[in-house]
Design goal:
- The structure is a single chain.
- By secondary structure, the protein is an alpha/beta fold.
- The protein is built from four helices and eight strands; from the N terminus they run E-H-E-H-E-E-E-H-E-H-E-E.
- The model has no long low-confidence stretch (mean pLDDT 93).
- Bound molecules: xanthosine-5'-monophosphate (XMP) and magnesium ion (MG).
- Xanthosine-5'-monophosphate binds next to strand 5 and helix 3.
Length: 184
Amino acid sequence: MDVQDMGQDLEKVLLSKEQIDTRLTEMAAEIDADYAGRELLLVGVLRGAVMVMADLSRKIHLPIEMDWMAVSSYGSGTKSSGVVRILKDLDTDLHGRDVLIVEDIIDSGLTLSWLLANLRSRGPASVEIATLLRKPEAAKVAVDVRYVGFDIAPEFVVGYGLDYAERYRHLPFVGTLAPHVYGG
Ligand code: XMP
Ligand code: MG
């Protein structure tokens, strides 16, 4: 899927494929340096983090393992409540592991602070977070995010794993939707 397939649905491209690629290369280099000599467990949060995981992991030179979690946060479609339910748990024992959570976007930060506490209770050596996108509200919460791709404005974005009603995840860029898509 690309710009031409969006018809009138695309409002604007916020981050191009090239911008995302360049930033992920930088983040991977930082991760390689920070964890030199260690072996990482990357934990992807389904489903939005699939693209970030695929591209970021392939830029990391250290040995890694990958595992996945699916969580749902209760609340309305666009606001998260901080009450989280595990839909799919990890298959990996975290004892003594260096864990890096890979996320697509942090908005209120509530989902992630819950996840962080949950994973930290499982005896890992360390737990850090890498996210492609962060909205301003998240910067206010006490979630320490080690690797941030881009700080973006508080508008709803799609593409590169992010959906609106499960659509647009396979856009290679991050963009915003025209108001009529939301029924406006
Ligand atoms: P928190 O708990 O940080 O929740 O508020 C983060 C989750 O909210 C979703 N989210 C978005 N999804 N475009 C999306 O497609 C957005 O702009 C957006 N903002 C937040 C997403 O599921 C994320 O994991
Ligand atoms: Mg998500």
